[in-house]
Amino acid sequence: MSAASCLLSEDQFLCSICLDVFTDPVSTPCGHNFCKDCITEHWDTNNSCQCPLCNKIFYTRPELDINTFISEMVSQFKHEAPQKTSSSSSEQQVVKPGEVPCDVCTGTKLKALKSCLDCLMSYCEIHLEPHLTVSGLKRHQLIDPVENLEGRICMKHDKPLELFCKSDQTCVCMFCSVLDHKTHDVVPLKEEYEGKKAELEKTEAEIQQMILKRRLKIQEIKHSVKISQKDADREKVEGVQVFTALKESVERGLNKFLKEIEDKQKTTEKQAEYFIQDLEQEISELMERSSEVEQLSHSEDHLHLLQSFSSLKAAPPTKNWTEVRVRPPSYEGTVVRAVAQLEETLSKEMKKLFEAELKRVQQFAVDVTLDPDTANPYLILSEDGKQGHSSDVKKKLPEHRKRFSPCFCVLGKQSFSSGRFYCEVQVKGKTEWDVGVVRESIKRKGNITITPKYGFWAIWLRNGNEYCAREEPSVDLFLKSRPEKVGVFVDYEEGLVSFYDVDTAALIYSFTGCCFNQKLHPYFCPSDNDDDENSAPLIICPVKQTV
């Protein structure tokens, strides 16, 4: 007998209640067979005697006798099939942790293939066979194996939860839909499942898109870190070069200073040594003559003294040392001159450094034009929005909330809320001006305080030669030369606003540690005309890379 025929024969001897091979099989009047204990317990637990397969009701409980024919067939089947049944079972998958076991298997549990919502049990391949072949069991609802089948049955009506109430967002059975949820929007479970599945697929797509965006953001951040590292390495190299050059300049200046002092001291020492040698020579000669004079002066021989006196050596020539002096050299101004030379060297190095710095920030040049909606009525702007100067005639303009009044100010049309930007403004020929950047929300009417606290980061010129950074308090700027073109650089994230004298590549002033939390606009103030003394315009210039 083949495995297929064995299985086909086996289903003829399975009780539809316990789904196992008959034990003491009995037959009901309607012709269906069950284990005696199974059908007895079934009728004992129900109010009526009804066939579990055809649902025929017996108003009088039938007397049940063991069906000897079926019993003998079962006995013969059990004798012939155990080895093949065991072989077939061994081919089935034994349940693993996390998998749903068969509820019918005794001993070694096999993996369940399906769960029955009517029987509230899960079945392996062997024990599932009746549900695939027996007509009464074919009507049962099979699903993929799950645990806790009781949770899929309505606790109130003991029926499968096969509908979904949209009003209460809960699963219900058929009885619930016509009783407790009669007026609610109830749909088949499958329909709601398809809808929710579509939503989940959409959500999953959105999540994947969010994941993708975040991965791209990670790449962007990593790229920013690489750029930052590259900039940091470059800055380190340049810094080391600059400070090494400065250190060498300081060392050269120090060595030159020390050598100058030492040379003067050596010259003094040589001069003193020469004088001392002459003096010692004269002393030696004088001591020799003194000895001769002393010896002759002690002679008691009159003749000898008179004869020797004429032959006494004449006094050796000597120098008049009265006016001879060793004058210490003057060291006054030596340190000052050395430091001045060092300062000159440092200035040259600083100029190179500022030129390199200016060249770097000029790479962030942006095109800025003046916004006529913000311009004071006394300001005249060029058609291209690149120039602005004040006049004595007030233009008739609509009163706009963005317009400055009475201050002679105007903003750039462009705004910036991230990154770095740079622009250049010609201030040549003017006696008063303001240049900088401002927050978008600054006050524009009445008296305006131009400081960072009120959203202004600016420098200005007053009275033709008084330069000032509008800090709190103000910082007076003492510039070596009068700027004709001012460069304005902003690093939004760094909180930095720097001003440059473009022609000399010198740093004028920097606002550091700024807190930017709004859009920034370039800010310009040509100031009033001052009887044509300040009639020159402020001009936004195209940026040319510093050579």
**What does the average pLDDT come to?**
88
Please give the share of residues in helix.
25-40%
Shape: elongated
Instruction: Give the amount of beta strand, in percent.
Output: 15-25%
Structural category:
alpha+beta
Using the 3D structure, state the CATH architecture of the domain at 365-541.
Sandwich
Span of the ends, CA to CA: 100 Å
Just give the CATH class of the domain at 365-541.
Mainly Beta
Radius of gyration: 56 Å
The major β-sheet equals: 7 strands, antiparallel
Low-confidence spans: 1-8, 83-90
CATH superfamily of the domain at 365-541: SPRY domain
- In CATH, the topology of the domain at 365-541 is named Jelly Rolls
Query: What's the total helix number?
Result: 10
List how many beta strands DSSP finds.
23
Strand order of the largest sheet: 11-12-23-14-19-20-21
What is the strand and helix layout of this fold?
Blueprint (H helix, E strand, L loop, with lengths): L2 H8 L14 E3 L5 E3 H9 L4 E2 L6 E2 L9 H13 L1 H10 L22 E3 L4 E3 L1 H9 L1 H4 L3 E2 L19 E3 L4 E3 L1 H5 L7 E3 H109 L4 H10 L22 H28 L17 E3 L5 E4 L19 E2 L8 E7 L6 E7 L16 E7 L3 E4 L5 E3 L7 E7 L4 E6 L4 E6 L8 E6 L12 E4 L6
Descriptive account of the structure:
With 547 residues, the chain is an alpha+beta fold. Among the domains are: 89 residues, Zinc/RING finger domain, C3HC4 (zinc finger) (Herpes Virus-1, 2-Layer Sandwich), CATH 3.30.40; 177 residues, SPRY domain (Jelly Rolls, Sandwich). 37% of the residues lie in helices and 17% in strands. Strands 11-12-23-14-19-20-21 form a seven-stranded antiparallel β-sheet, covered by helices on one side. A six-stranded antiparallel β-sheet has the order 13-22-15-16-17-18, with no helix packed on it. A hairpin with a 6-residue loop joins strand 3 and strand 4. Helix 8 runs antiparallel to helix 10. The longest helix has 109 residues. It is elongated and about 195 Å long. The N terminus is likely disordered.
